[in-house]
Amino acid sequence: MNAQPTIHNIQILRGIAAMMVVFHHTIGQMGSRGGRDLGFEIIIGRAGVDLFFVISGFIMVYVTHDRDRTPIEYWRGRIIRIAPLYWFYTLTLALIALVAPSMLRSTDLQLVHFLKSLFFIPSQHPIFETKLYPILVQGWTLNYEMYFYLIFGLLLAIKTPRQRIGMLSIILVGLVAIGFLFPPKGSNLVEPLWQTYTSPLLLEFLFGALIGVAYIHWYHQVRQVSWVCIILGLGLFALGVWQPDWTELRVIKWGLPSAFLVTGALGLETNQSGNGILMMLGNASYSTYLNHTFTLGVIGIIWARFGNGSLLFDAGMFSFALAASAAIGILSYKLIERPMTAWLGR
Q: What is the number of other CB atoms lying within 10 angstroms of the CB of residue 12?
């Protein structure tokens, strides 16, 4: 059976999500390299991750709802899509840590942590001890992705899509409830697994999956509420920025508006080619997400060396950092990610 057609608005949202994360980390570079103090913390960039999670849940339902695929076939496709590029950049970072450790400020290469990073096993970071980060820090989200793929793949044994999503809902809500009722109190081995595998962030994948069901079965109703969802999503994002303490639950603060935004974008889909630049950013979003910290690290060194604290210089460097991260992400997609995925998928 042919693959599902690309939904251009979702692809564009993927590009936006990647650039939101780049934006967030560029602010961090500016602060750590002596750049201008903005006077307040712009935290909206963090929501790029939540937007990714909702999109991921949607895509998994969208691409499998009318395809008879075994769990093994599904997992093979997901591993080929996710793991090789992640391993490439993880190994690149490990090599830098071995030959030029002075270049890195947030990497302490330890064998056990490195191996857990490669196999998507949550563990405490050697430097950021309170964080469950792999050696390539932004890869923490992939631990959630691969866990979701494991669960979703098992449920492909259920051939009725609606029953499958019903069971997915029960499992994810149940896991989050268990985590809420029984907070982790285990060892350094058990606690990271418990924290991740019962995290409320799992509900963001469920949001996306339920949106996928609505899009497939009630497309016209989704179209009718598209602008309402866009307004609600943007309004809740604005609330999270200007009143960050309105809720401590990330799944509500960033996950819920992400769900509204994805729903609205689906309702506004026109099946046209879309903006070329935005589509390219979407195509390259995974590469950009994985390699932008390398780009920002180099730019950060230049920032610290030549920065004078002026508004003009900081604004220029900030803009350059965003543009360079996007450009190198696109190069990575065209020269590494796409050829590698095509070769492994043969």
A: 19
Tokens of 43: 């935290």
Residue 168, Cβ density class (10 Å: 0-12 exposed, 13-18 middle, ≥19 buried): buried
Residue whose token pair is 């943007």: 234
Residue 324: give the domain boundaries.
Answer: 8-344
Angstrom distance (rounded) from CA 339 to CA 346:
11
Model pTM score: 0.94
**Count of the separate structural domains present in the chain:** 1
pLDDT at 211 over 50: yes
In our burial notation (b when 16+ CB lie closer than 10 A, e otherwise), range 79-105 reads: ebbbbebbebbbeebbebbeeeeeeee
Q: Are 255 and 50 in contact (CB under 8 A)?
A: yes
Residue 269 lies inside a defined structural domain of this protein: yes
Mean pLDDT of the chain: 90
User: Is residue 3 assigned to a domain?
Assistant: no
Q: Classify residue 2: in a domain, yes or no.
A: no
1 located within any domain? no
**Integer angstrom CA distances of residue 137 from 128, 133, 234, 329, 342:** 10, 5, 28, 17, 26
More confident residue, 98 or 175: 175
Closest C-alpha to 318, from 50, 13, 33: 33
d(CA 323, CA 288): 11
* C-alpha span between 84 and 98 (Å, rounded): 21
Cβ 216 vs Cβ 60: under 8 Å: no
Between the alpha carbon of residue 24 and those of residues 138, 146, 274, 286, 289, the distances in Å are 12, 24, 26, 16, 12
Q: What is the DSSP string of 269-290?
A: ---S---HHHHHHHHTHHHHHH
The Cα 252–Cα 242 span in angstroms is: 15
Give the end-to-end CA distance of the chain in Å, rounded to a whole number.
16
Q: Where are the beta strands (DSSP E) in 125-180?
A: none
Strands (DSSP E) along 99-231, which ranges?
none
